Amino acid sequence: MGSTNFSPFFFAQPLPQKRLLSTLEFLEIPLYLKAIMDAEFLRTVSILRQLNTTELESFSSLLTLNEVKPRQRLTEEGTPVLALSIICTGVVHIRRLAQKREMLLGRLGPGGFFGEINLFDPGLATASIYAMKPSTIASVPYDSLRAYWKEHPDTGYKVVSAMMTEMCRRFRLISDRLVNLAYWDRSDASLPPEAKISPTS
Predict the structure, then answer these.
(1) In this structure, what are the phi and psi dihedrals at residue 142, rounded to the nearest 5 degrees?
(2) What is the pLDDT of residues 75-96, one digit of tens each?
(3) Cβ neighbours around 118 below 10 Å, total
(4) Strands 92-98 vs 128-131: parallel, antiparallel or unpaired
(5) Which residue among 18, 137, 147, 175 is least enclosed by CB atoms within 10 Å?
(6) What is the mean pLDDT of residues 42-70?
């Protein structure tokens, strides 16, 4: 049997041995794949909703499944990111260091995904991601994903368009949160001259 194929996201801590699948095992057990990564589940993933059944089945062949334990770190802030990951089961928290303390930025459940930013703008992880419950993560290396899109441009266009929509939605949410957290001094002294209200005569 070939060596176990793990996503680069999971290098930080050793994975549990129970039900881990090598690449060949993954391809040889269609029932396991069907149970977790069937077309109905994949349609719950926002970036895959535009794909038809044939495209979903084709895309699912790229994915490698990994089981992770609660509190296990999936990716670490400041380290390279090399794969796109989809949460099949469980919950993950996204945390970032701020003044030597980790701040919770958000959480993702089944159908959520992470690793999309570095697919388009390669760099280091801007946050750490932890599993908060026993979770199953499906991942695909960027190189495999790009090669697949090159061979299937129509499918690639649908996925990339959906990714851009989802990323814009997330940026809007972040913007709204920043506005809500900002402290506004309501005194006239804090307003620019053109914003001050002149007294009525």
Answers:
(1) -55, -40
(2) 999 999 999 999 988 999 999 9
(3) 19
(4) antiparallel
(5) 18
(6) 89
Q: Determine the number of helices (DSSP H) and then strands (DSSP E) in the chain.
A: 7, 8
Q: Which DSSP string corresponds to 166-193? A: HHHHHHHHHHHHHHHHS----SGGGS-G
- Dihedral of CA atoms 179, 183, 185, 190 in degrees, nearest 10, equals -60
Buried b / exposed e over 32-54, threshold 16 CB at 10 Å, is ebeebbebebbbebebbeebeee
Give pLDDT, residue 102.
84
Both structure tokens of 35: 């149970």
**3-state SS class at 137:** strand
**Is residue 87 within 8 Å of residue 110, measured between CB atoms?**
yes
* Residue that the structure tokens 């001050």 belong to: 196
Please name the residue ranges forming H helices in 71-186. Answer: 117-120, 142-151, 153-181
Look at 30 and 93; give whichever has higher pLDDT.
93
Neighbours of 123 (CB within 10 A): 9
